[in-house]
Amino acid sequence: LVLDSLLVQYGVVESCEQVNTDSETAVVNVTYSSKDQARQALDKLNGFQLESFTLKVAYIPDEIAAQQNPSQQPRGRRGFGQRGSSRQGSPGSVSKQKPCDLPLRLLVPTQFVGAIIGKEGATIRNITKQTQSKIDVHRKENAGAAEKSITILSTPEGTSAACKSILEIMHKEAQDIKFTEEIPLKILAHNNFVGRLIGKEGRNLKKIEQDTDTKITISPLQELTLYNPERTITVKGNVETCAKAEEEIMKKIRESYENDIASMNLQAHLIPGLNLNALGLFPPTSGMPPPTSGPPSTMTPPYPQFEQSETETV
């Protein structure tokens, strides 16, 4: 009761359960209705003196809490104990296998699209199954264009595996049709994320080139338009080296994306009416606005809405 009256000062307590009863140290798991309330309780109660005991408070990330107690889906959970070691894990830590909201977008020569899809879609289905990815081949867009885009959504590991499979298919098809030109890996990335990929004086990009033994170029800023905010990252090398480069490039781009999303979520309440979901980079399921750069004044009016067909994801 004493603990209950203390806990409710910091928010709505959804549950309060004692975990162990067989030692002198009481461990209590407390679930608040929001992470902000739980953070506030953590700050205020750590080291708090309660009836000659000192409270030790630690954060249990949602993933760990969910594994410990699958029947509950906790949000913002904290473990309370008078003594004992703090729980490991930091707020918002992500398990390795969590799919990233940011897809990998590839640009492939149109003549290889048929081989990538395979007879009655068998090849693409096989890649999707093996790599646990969602893959969209946008072959109906840009009729007559020399290249078509492919969107891959999965975990970072699944995405890289799917990308490597597509590279292998293109190289095999090139031999079969006696295609003599080099087949580079082309990655599309929103301009906002490219600066941090390049790094100061191009250092990040040079390091990726050296580490993966590839040659990487990025399309110039002048080619960007409101309707095409993406830059093309061209990687030249063999299948193995290009696949390694994709891992490193996307690692940097995902970092940029996640940093921008975090700062956007913090700023969201400062920019009323901000709606940039029209950009075709973010799957409709992600529910997050695309990150933007510049002060609010440069972000209005929002990007024009793009038409999306029912069956294909842009």
Automatic annotation (TrEMBL):
**Region called Disordered, residue ranges:** 65-98, 282-314
Q: Carries keyword Nucleotide-binding? A: no
Keywords noted in UniProt: mRNA transport, Repeat, RNA-binding, Translation regulation, Transport
Q: Which GO terms describe its molecular function?
A: mRNA 3'-UTR binding
Q: Which CDD domains match?
A: KH-I_IGF2BP3_rpt1
Query: What SMART domains does UniProt report for this protein, alphabetically?
Result: KH
Q: Where is the composition biased (Pro residues)?
A: 286-304
Q: Name one GO cellular component term.
A: P-body
Answer whether the UniProt record assigns the keyword Nucleotidyltransferase to this protein. Answer: no
**Cellular localisation:** Cytoplasm, P-body; Cytoplasm, Stress granule
**InterPro entries given for it?**
KH_dom, KH_dom_type_1, KH_dom_type_1_sf, Nucleotide-bd_a/b_plait_sf, RBD_domain_sf, RRM_dom
Q: Where is the composition biased (Low complexity)?
A: 83-93
Please give the PROSITE patterns that the UniProt record associates with this protein: KH_TYPE_1
Pfam families the UniProt entry points to: KH_1, RRM_1
Q: Enumerate the spans annotated as K Homology domain.
A: 100-171, 181-254
* Biological process terms in GO annotation: mRNA transport; regulation of translation
Family listed: Belongs to the RRM IMP/VICKZ family.
Q: What is this protein called?
A: Insulin-like growth factor 2 mRNA-binding protein 3
* Gene name, Swiss-Prot/TrEMBL: IF2B3
